[in-house]
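User: Design a sequence. Structure:
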């Protein structure tokens, strides 16, 4: 097999380790591993399998399509999705034992109609908007949503398996929104209880809250980023020994000398102030390398950090090798776990004014993913 020009390797051992670590941390609350957006760029199916092997009782995805794909690939565990538009394929979701989320009366009606058509009792979780002002029932209609859900439950069409919400600022533990949202959540739970609902799981926390706010763990926590080994609240999270699962590598395409006064890449935004050598890295924003990190990020070549010089292009970018002469074909580590001298996804996030989530989720393009497991490479 020829060595790929560039590749993404994903350590499934790291995923399993992170899932086991998080499960132990939050016990007796249960853990949902969130594998939406192709497993945050790590590959939804292999990550889902690794999470189940590590004992994750729940998986979470955004869309029904993602949930159905997991079922087609043989996943049989508890599975929640939470983002729908009118006219979704609820029939298949119910037949495939997916827990679906409702924010509004119209969704409850659609789900109830699917239950009538299919003869399958729907498993529904209700989401309340406690202050993120994104999805979820506004508190003003929450009593109506729970009354209607209870009516449909009594009619035998659905079962309310969960009630949940989502934080706006859980990566800032001292932000006043956290306490405020949790208070609204508790009130929403009381209203649901008074209406006769007895959900199996109540849940509010994502990774940051699961780690930093034990009082928000309820019955279940929904961890995405931490399961991939990245820090949900950089600088604020205790060291749990989580291991970043993704490493992005490329081969150097070319090495050449550059004279003082010569400029690099589109727009000539960087000019050498001394004679040096540069290397060509054959991936660019077409592969999810952020153009915004031009002249700011670093990669590792031959055991040292090398600065990106000039603009990141669609297919390639240039790094300063400071007079060194590695050979074309030598390894470039774009980012990895940071256990050696390589930069991390967090370093790239800071260089691109974004969050580590976006770095790993967007990287891909033409690069193949390679899965590394204990037994070797598959
Ligand atoms: C993506 C998502 C999560 C996971 O968040 P992390 O910060 O990655 O742990 C949890 N809940 C909902 C509703 C989400 O959309």
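Assistant: Done.
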């Amino acid at each position: 097999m020829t060595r790929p020009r560039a590749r993404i390797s994903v350590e499934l051992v790291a995923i399993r380790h992170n899932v086991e670590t998080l499960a132990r941390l939050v016990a007796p609350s249960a853990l949902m591993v969130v594998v939406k957006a192709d497993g945050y760029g790590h590959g939804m199916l292999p990550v889902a399998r690794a999470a189940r092997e590590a004992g994750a009782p729940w998986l979470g995805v955004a869309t029904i399509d993602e949930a159905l794909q997991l079922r087609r690939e043989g996943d049989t565990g508890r599975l929640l999705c939470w983002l729908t538009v009118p006219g979704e394929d609820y029939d298949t979701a119910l037949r495939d034992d997916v827990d679906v989320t409702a924010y509004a009366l119209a969704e409850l009606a659609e789900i109830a109609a699917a239950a009538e058509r299919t003869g399958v009792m729907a498993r529904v979780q209700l989401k309340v908007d406690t202050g993120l002002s994104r999805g979820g029932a506004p508190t003003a209609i929450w009593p109506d949503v729970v009354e209607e859900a209870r009516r449909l439950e009594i009619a035998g069409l659905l079962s309310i398996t969960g009630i949940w919400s989502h934080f706006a600022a859980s990566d800032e533990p001292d932000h006043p929104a956290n306490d405020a949202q949790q208070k609204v959540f508790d009130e929403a739970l009381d209203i649901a209880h008074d209406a006769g609902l007895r959900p199996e799981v109540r849940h509010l926390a994502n990774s940051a809250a699961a780690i930093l706010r034990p009082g928000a763990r309820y019955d279940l926590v929904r961890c995405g980023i931490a399961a991939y080994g990245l820090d949900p609240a950089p600088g604020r999270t205790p060291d749990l020994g989580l291991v970043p699962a993704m490493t992005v590598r490329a081969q150097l395409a070319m090495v050449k000398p550059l004279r003082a006064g010569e400029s690099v890449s589109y727009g000539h935004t960087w000019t050498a102030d001394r004679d040096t050598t540069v290397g060509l890295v054959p991936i660019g924003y077409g592969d999810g390398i952020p153009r915004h990190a031009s002249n700011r990020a670093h990669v590792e070549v031959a055991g040292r950090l090398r600065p990106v010089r000039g603009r990141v292009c669609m297919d390639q970018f240039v790094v300063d090798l400071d007079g060194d002469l590695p050979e074309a074909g030598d390894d470039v580590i774009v980012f990895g776990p940071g256990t050696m001298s390589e930069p991390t996804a967090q370093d790239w996030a800071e260089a691109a004014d974004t969050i580590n989530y976006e770095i790993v989720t967007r990287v891909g393009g033409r690069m193949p993913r390679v899965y590394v497991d204990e037994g070797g490479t598959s």
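The chain has two domains: 12-228, 246-373. The two ends are 13 Å apart (CA to CA).
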